[in-house]
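--- STAGE predict ---
source: upstream dedup step, 1 unique chain passed
mode: sequence only
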Amino acid sequence: MTKYRINFLHLFALILDYYKRKRYSFQVLTLKYHFIIKSNYMIFKNLSIRSAFSLSLAVVFALSNLSCKEKTTKEAPSQETAALSAPNFKLSLAQWSIHKMINEDGLDPYAFAEKAHAWGFEGLEYVSQLYNKELQPSNYGPEAMANFVAKSLAESEKYGLQNLLIMIDGQGNLATTDAAERQAAVENHYKWVDAAAALGCHSVRVNLAGSNDPAVWIPAATDGLSKLATYAATKNINVIVENHGGLSSNAGLLVQVMEAVNMTNAGTLPDFGNFCITAEWGASGRTCLEEYDRYKGIEEMMPYAKAVSAKSHDFGPEGQEIHSDYPRIMKLVKDAGYNGFVGVEYEGSALSEEAGIIATRDLLISLQ
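--- STAGE serialize ---
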């Protein structure tokens, strides 16, 4: 029994040390304590009732003292203390982070808010294609879309979360060279703009798929984005473009489109990892043939950013994402003056979706 007590006290000492070194808030510290209890269930299972009660009292006492210290600090904070403790951004969860749970494990997509709340997020970023099973049979008819809004709104309100944006896929190519097809794609997006407005979101994320010839793609992308942004402006919704493959992943060209559109509700959603311009698929998966420099790309896109997507795949032993230099990227984000939500979007396979989400969340918290 002594072994379990020592193990728990060691774990608790670790999170207290994180608090001292990184100045986590009381709320974040409590969240970390929750996950330690969850992930070390056997420790508590094997403790006697007396031991568990004693440890619980010790934890409550320690956390209460920390909370009281924070309250005292908040009553009369020095400028230095305020600068160190104030969070730079809030965290949201991109629904794509749980697409395997939904598509493969049968998770109800409307459990999104519940999951995000349990993991400590404050904002929600919906993905339209994860509701196709429900919405496609009626061709995204008014009744089906109204039901999507009502159920999503009820869940977000139930868990006290903020609806931020909808990522729209499969509604047509906004940068196609065919003018009639492009106009149809623009109009196909209207229903999602309406849904975003009804949910209280600030944006819809779109893709600018089209030609691989910049001379053709730029004017087509400018036209499609301008037309959709014009409609979205009547709903007080932003239309934001993610670097999402093809020429949209060439940030220099995407900036040219932003400059040509020149509308206050048209912007970007810089994704930390989607800078592959051309790729080929084989037996071993996708091979990127041409990739834009991600750090240059993020810096170029940030002046137009209305949301940020913290893409992650794999993590090293120290908790750092091994493909993207998160400290460098987050400095670019902060230096651009961005103070909105940062969306966690885990897309790896080495960790489970839940573990990857938590690893990304904790990495971002450490950079506050």
